Amino acid sequence: MRIFVIFDMDGTLYDLYAPFAEAVRQCLKEETPPDDVLKQIFAASRRYSDELRGQGVNDAEQLVRQRSRLAFSDFGQPLSEAQSIELQRAYASAQAHLRMEPAMRNLLACLREAGAQLALLSNGDARHQREKARQLGADAYIPVQRQFFSGMIHRDKPDPALFRWVEEQLQVAQGDVIWYVGDSYEADVIGAHDAGWRSIWSQAYLPQKQLSVNGTIDRVAVDLDELREQLIAVLKGEEWDEMCRKR
């Protein structure tokens, strides 16, 4: 039996809110909403992102502009077309300097050394997402041939067809176990459940934690320390646990 641990990327391997907040402050300056409101706008933009993808909006630049205008309008601060373009460009610039936290790098290294089969599955345009994965340094832990993006087959999470396709690429056999780690309840947790995978809902980088949901859920991790503990429980390996504690 092999244990696959497959990660989402945006909002899971790195803090997606940080580049968003940086871009907003750069563009709106003194008109930037208070931090608590900005976090709600960010959460709304993430929801709109999934909705827009479902409507066929896949161009990365167009997606950022549309979801930003929708999210800000919900909170009584509509953006002009010029502002949405400026925000999209500032956001792209901030994402050019993405880095994973040392704790996440350490976790991936421990998983790899423990023999877990690591992979990546993210929604989005393949070229754009592949470049982000490279900038993050994901290649050091997850082979490029095990990095999968929905744009490769034009099916987005939570479509079970995308998960099935990943299984085929990884040559998952009967008896193998797949755990999926992601930050979106709708796209990641529900998508994994419908595909017969197990899931860990990572809220480490969610500005607003959501601890109660209606539906099936395997595990929840509210920060990176808890995510690590959840994965220790999944692998059930004392040797792996001890090895990671020495890092």
TrEMBL record:
This is HAD family hydrolase. One of its GO terms (molecular function) is hydrolase activity. Its cofactor is Mg(2+). Its EC number is 3.1.3.-. It is an enzyme of class 3 (hydrolase). The keyword Hydrolase applies. Gene3D superfamilies: HAD superfamily/HAD-like, Haloacid dehalogenase hydrolase-like domain. InterPro entries: HAD-like_hydrolase, HAD-like_sf, HAD-SF_hydro_IA, HAD_sf. NCBIfam families: HAD-SF-IA-v1 (TIGR01549). Keywords: Hydrolase, Magnesium, Metal-binding.
